[in-house]
Amino acid sequence: QVQLVESGGGLVQAGGSLRLSCAASARTFSSAAMGWFRQALGKEREFVAAMARSGRSTYYADSVKGRFTFSRDNAKNTVYLQMNSLKPEDTALYYCAARDAVGSYYYIYAYDYDYWGQGTQVTVSS
Question: How many CB atoms lie within 10 A of CB 102?
Fold first, then answer.
């Protein structure tokens, strides 16, 4: 069974920073394109950021571009989402996702992903 485990969420004031982590099982990580999504209360899940298997290609939602940075540490089988200049509208449950992939493709739709973590809550107070 593939496992993704997110951590790093919490409560932060507007303008602050958080770093989310997603630890993946080795079999997943070595061949996976990765993504971050979020779901605010009462809203649909939305795309945040994506990274190709190679790690050389990333893509961000316009709402987070310039504030969030997606990175991966292959030695630790972990991806990170560094979130700076947080806004109250960033409040949501954040999910890590993975799918088998090749090359430099990244995926921005939830239905493209096969594996999901349990989510970590991010709350930004005004």
Answer: 10
Beta bridge partners of 11: 123
**CA–CA dist 25, 68 (Å, integer):** 24
Whole-number pLDDT of residue 29? 76
The pLDDT tens digits for 8-19 are 999 999 999 999
End-to-end CA distance of the chain: 40
Neighbours of 119 (CB within 10 A): 17
DSSP-derived secondary structure for 73-110: EGGGTEEEEEE-S--GGG-EEEEEEEEE--TT----SG
The two beta strands, 120-125 and 10-13, are: parallel
**Torsion angle, alpha carbons of 49, 94, 97, 65, to 10:** 0
Cα dist from 84 to 19, 58, 64, 81, whole Å = 9, 17, 9, 10
Tokens found for residue 118: 């349990």
